[in-house]
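Here is the promised in-class demo. Please do not try to memorize the tokens; focus on the logic of going from shape to residues.
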């Protein structure tokens, strides 16, 4: 759709190479206290991905506190990705071999100590951390195969992590049942921060145990995930992970429909290759790529009698992505001379849920110089593309 009103003023919707906080990610595994070759790491970054998953193994410290070298390495890792413009999905693990019980600490207090040590070092990187997955335990940090997954331990570790990061970072658990356990903490802020990471999306009817076996309970839990991820509170709750095990559940439109239902924001671009290759062959890969997280489309440009009398142009946008745009945003016009934001009415849009629309008003005279229009995140000015369809 090419709008004639805007075209008259030489105004277009600018393109963004990589949009923030959505899309595909690759995994970057680290094991402390091993030294890191950052030149080699730089070569591994993908130009078409704005997100990375940094999986940091602290298993060598299962029976002792992290030393200064380990804490410095964590900061070096976070600083590297920040400097290179990548948002970070962060996961700390004791195990990367599928031997969670064997490799985790013998007591919960050791885990809590690690959380407090690490948390104090994450605060200054909080703006660049998309989410912090898990509570350090289980095989691959996936919150299964661990002695610390009873309700009391989950509450204790999640609260420790929340306090250690001062409530400034999104958190995530594997199962909706694990999130429901947190209700007994009577801490609304934790609930507003805690989303989901599901590394077995569409692998089976239950996503390999992420959801209940009982059909009715399983459907209720999926609705629960969706309801949580549609809430535009605080910095929002995310859902993302990996699609694994090639089967009918992740065929074509089945996959797209499921990802939309769970409001998925990010997916692993490396795993499962059989599933990803199937999506590419059937054409659904591009559809999924375009709709992970938010997708902001131009719904209409209105310059009727009412707008004419006000000297305004009304631009309406719609989020057609799988998930919400969780960030407060403004609309701005950029040209060679200046940047002009939309008028005070609806100047700041406090997020936009999937399927929802919002409007911005531009003064007509301010469009006369032409330029490109973007949405911009309030907190950092990152641009979000408005797509004409």
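The designed amino acids, position by position:
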């Amino acid at each position: 759709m090419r709008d004639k009103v805007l075209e008259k003023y030489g105004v277009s919707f600018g393109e963004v190479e990589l949009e923030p906080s959505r899309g595909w990610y690759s995994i970057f595994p680290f094991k402390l206290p091993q030294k890191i070759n950052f030149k080699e790491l730089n070569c591994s970054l993908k130009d078409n991905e704005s997100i990375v998953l940094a999986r940091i193994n602290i298993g060598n410290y299962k029976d002792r506190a992290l030393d200064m070298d380990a804490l410095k390495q964590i900061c070096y890792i976070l600083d590297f990705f920040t400097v290179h413009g990548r948002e970070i999905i962060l996961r700390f693990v004791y195990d990367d071999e599928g031997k969670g019980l064997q490799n985790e600490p013998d007591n919960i207090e050791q885990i809590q100590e690690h959380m407090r040590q690490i948390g104090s070092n994450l605060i200054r990187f909080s703006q660049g951390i998309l989410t912090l997955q898990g509570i350090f335990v289980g095989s691959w940090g996936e919150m299964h195969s661990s002695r610390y997954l009873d309700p009391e331990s989950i509450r204790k570790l999640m609260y420790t992590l929340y306090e250690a990061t001062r409530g400034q970072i999104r958190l995530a658990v594997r199962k909706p049942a694990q999130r429901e356990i947190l209700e007994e903490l009577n801490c609304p802020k934790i609930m507003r921060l805690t989303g989901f990471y599901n590394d077995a999306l569409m692998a089976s009817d239950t996503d390999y145990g992420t959801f209940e076996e009982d059909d009715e309970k399983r459907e209720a839990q999926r609705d629960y995930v969706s309801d949580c991820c549609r809430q535009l509170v605080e910095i929002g709750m995310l859902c993302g992970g990996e699609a694994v095990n090639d089967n009918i559940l992740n065929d074509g439109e089945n996959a797209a429909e499921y990802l939309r239902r769970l409001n998925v924001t990010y997916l692993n671009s490396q795993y499962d290759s059989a599933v990803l290759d199937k999506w590419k062959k059937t054409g659904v890969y591009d559809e999924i790529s375009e709709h992970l997280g938010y997708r902001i489309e131009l719904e209409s440009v209105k310059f009727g009698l009412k707008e004419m009398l006000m000297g305004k142009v009304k631009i309406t946008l719609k989020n057609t992505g799988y998930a919400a745009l969780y960030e407060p945003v403004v609309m701005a016009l950029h040209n060679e001379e200046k940047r002009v934001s939309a008028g005070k009415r609806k100047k700041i849009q406090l997020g936009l849920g999937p399927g929802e629309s919002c409007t911005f008003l531009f003064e007509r005279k301010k469009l006369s110089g032409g330029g490109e229009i973007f949405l911009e995140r309030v907190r950092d000015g990152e641009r979000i593309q408005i797509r004409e369809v």
